[in-house]
Amino acid sequence: MRGKNSDLQNQRIRQYFLDAGKEVIEKKGITDFSTRTVAQLAGYTSATTYNYFRDAKQLLSLSLVHAVAPYFKSVQQTLRADEPSHLTWLKVWRKYAAISFKEPEIYQYVFFSEHTHEVLQETSTYYTIFNDDALVSDPNADKIFADTIEARDAIWKGLLADAKVVASEEDLDHLMIFVHALVTGMGQQIIAEDSIKYQDQLNLFMNYLIDYLLAHTSIKESKEELLKLAMAD
After folding, report:
1. 23 in a domain, yes or no?
2. Start and end of every HTH tetR-type domain (predicted)?
3. Do 3 and 99 have their domain in common?
4. Would 112 be classed as within a structural domain?
5. Contacts by 156-161 with C-beta closer than 8 Å and gap 24+?
6. Count: domains in the chain
7. Domain that residue 11 falls in
8. pLDDT tens string for the chain (233 positions)?
């Protein structure tokens, strides 16, 4: 019994640290992240950190996974919905944009940076702290948590291939390249434009995405239909 209680206490303390780490990242940014700042916010000394985390890099990576965990959950829920594959694909990217446009530094760092592998390799550790058996056991879990763009793309390419709306593997590759460019390039320019409100940013992103999709696939719905369906929960 004592061992079980000790494990629960250790898990609880790690959660305190990661809640604090997430708060530091969201309020001060990744560059101002430090074990001392996180430990103080969690109510512990910085030396205590190393009783629960391998090093400062692991604490940062796990805190970042904690920050993007709602996106992982939304992907799982969207993939499980009984909807046409191309619509599922659009909704996944709409949800990515909806969340990442509010926290662009975090999402760029986690999914599209030189640090992606370092961060996402900690997802298995994260889900031993924050239990989510339904997500971890999901057939797509390995791809959802994948630490390379190519592995994550396998889900989306599979959806469009299943829908039989893309003529060739080359067209699928081009579509993936466009989405990445939209997210990391034009998407960042949209966010940086202070005169555009958040909802308008999201609408603009989805308009770009749907325009390209319709131009390079055999999807029959109109742009207006797709936009309405993709923006609906």
Report:
1. yes
2. 11-71
3. no
4. yes
5. 156/89, 156/92, 159/85, 159/86, 159/88, 159/89, 160/85, 160/86, 160/89, 160/217
6. 2
7. 1-53
8. 445 557 888 889 999 999 999 999 999 999 999 999 999 999 999 999 999 999 999 999 999 999 999 999 999 999 888 899 999 999 999 999 999 988 989 999 999 999 999 999 999 999 988 888 888 888 888 889 999 888 888 888 888 888 888 888 898 999 999 998 888 876 677 666 667 788 888 898 999 999 999 999 999 899 999 999 999 87
